[in-house]
Automatic annotation (TrEMBL):
<dbReference type="Pfam" id="PF03721">
    <property type="entry name" value="UDPG_MGDP_dh_N"/>
</dbReference>
<dbReference type="InterPro" id="IPR014027">
    <property type="entry name" value="UDP-Glc/GDP-Man_DH_C"/>
</dbReference>
<keyword id="KW-0560">Oxidoreductase</keyword>
<dbReference type="InterPro" id="IPR014026">
    <property type="entry name" value="UDP-Glc/GDP-Man_DH_dimer"/>
</dbReference>
<dbReference type="InterPro" id="IPR028357">
    <property type="entry name" value="UDPglc_DH_bac"/>
</dbReference>
<keyword id="KW-0520">NAD</keyword>
<dbReference type="InterPro" id="IPR036220">
    <property type="entry name" value="UDP-Glc/GDP-Man_DH_C_sf"/>
</dbReference>
<comment type="pathway">
    <text>Nucleotide-sugar biosynthesis; UDP-alpha-D-glucuronate biosynthesis; UDP-alpha-D-glucuronate from UDP-alpha-D-glucose: step 1/1.</text>
</comment>
<dbReference type="InterPro" id="IPR001732">
    <property type="entry name" value="UDP-Glc/GDP-Man_DH_N"/>
</dbReference>
<dbReference type="Pfam" id="PF00984">
    <property type="entry name" value="UDPG_MGDP_dh"/>
</dbReference>
<dbReference type="InterPro" id="IPR008927">
    <property type="entry name" value="6-PGluconate_DH-like_C_sf"/>
</dbReference>
<dbReference type="Pfam" id="PF03720">
    <property type="entry name" value="UDPG_MGDP_dh_C"/>
</dbReference>
<dbReference type="InterPro" id="IPR036291">
    <property type="entry name" value="NAD(P)-bd_dom_sf"/>
</dbReference>
<comment type="similarity">
    <text>Belongs to the UDP-glucose/GDP-mannose dehydrogenase family.</text>
</comment>
<dbReference type="InterPro" id="IPR017476">
    <property type="entry name" value="UDP-Glc/GDP-Man"/>
</dbReference>
<feature type="domain" description="UDP-glucose/GDP-mannose dehydrogenase C-terminal">
    <location>
        <begin position="322"/>
        <end position="426"/>
    </location>
</feature>
<protein>
    <recommendedName>
        <fullName>UDP-glucose 6-dehydrogenase</fullName>
        <ecNumber>1.1.1.22</ecNumber>
    </recommendedName>
</protein>
Amino acid sequence: MKVVIFGTGYVGLVTGTCLAEVGHDVTCVDIDIAKVEGLNNGVIPIYEPGLAPMVKDNHASGRLNFTTDAVAAIQTGDVIFIAVGTPPDEDGSADLQYVLKVASTIGENIHRPVIVVNKSTVPVGTADKVRAEIERALKARNASVKFDVVSNPEFLKEGDAVKDCMRPDRIVIGADNEDAVMVMRRIYAPFNRNHDRMVTMDIRSAELTKYAANAMLATKISFMNEIANIAERVGADIEHVRKGIGSDPRIGWHFIYPGAGYGGSCFPKDVQALERTATQVGYRAELLGAVEAVNDRQKSHLFELMVRHYGSAQALRGKNIALWGLAFKPNTDDMREASSRRLIALLLEAGAKVRAYDPEAAHEAKRIFGDVAGLEIVPRATDALAQADALVIVTEWKQFRSPDFNALGHALADRVIFDGRNLYEPAEVEGHGLAYWAIGRGR
Ligand code: UGA
């Protein structure tokens, strides 16, 4: 089928590439000329395992094209996906200006029936707004073209995006007529061979499903962080508690890892947006507010552990802190809402100096922090340890999992590790004469 995708961010680029990989003819449209030029020359704007070779292969085969020419692209599409950003507005609601701009461009330019698919994470009711915008644009040029609007939220995870997209655990389709569902079935048939992963429903339910999924996952994390904070105070070890509860299949092993707080482009934004939607319809979403508040507090938790270790925030003045992990999670260079950002800000404010290392996010950190005094981004994990007093770990990259504790003992003048991801066994670290502060591990 002929597919057009607006937006070459995470969702758009990965979806477009995977649809091309299974044989569809895909045109990705973006307004960013440099990005489109780069993609046409094999420059992939994000780090995502497995994505670069797939983009290059499909581009070379002619099934995956990149353009800034929205008008020409629209003429080619049977199905047009909207996968542009919905950044949070000042009040926390999702900003729909980019989604609606695409809708009007579609209305201004379609000449034959199409299906317009919302893949961006958009509040309940957005499909209606997209439909109204397309109708408005059609009317403005006295045209009448049949179109459908479908909600098809994306559930891929950064770092696993290609895998999630090629082997989805579910494909949610919200539509208001069977014909549209049938077209979506054809699009997704290659992903749906062995058993039917398609869940069809009305449009509003599909829109809400996306927020419910992310809010549930964020809730699990904030819940565990809250229990971890209690564990610290009652002298319990959250890692034992985690294993003790995860074995109950109703709770499950996934997403119950306490840490330095959740970040990324989705959870913080989506929890806020859902809370805002609730408020707009006259419901105070207490749980969502608490999920967010707990997460916000958790982002300062590593700093608080450091203050506890050193006795006061003043005692951090002049300390050299080695920081491992800047990205909001491993296998990505994304630092949106990353806990490292809060920690670095607090450390610099306290007068400490930070040498930070991340396997992929160095360029992003340099872009975000510029030449701020007191922060140096270094190219290797060992470089961060030079003259360091303490080590703090914020992201659980695999390469941090089994360090040479002897070497760390020699490198760290204050012989202390702060671990925001509970990577080590306390007894092992302490056995090397290092103090070890982790999350929720009773001290
Ligand atoms: C999240 C969802 O997991 C995807 O299903 C969803 O499609 C995506 O948002 C989206 O809406 O686009 P993502 O933001 O890429 O995916 O990252 P996650 O792997 O979910 O991690 C989010 C944050 O939670 C990270 O900061 C991670 O460190 C933290 N986390 C995760 C924990 O602190 N504990 C856990 O047990 C799991």
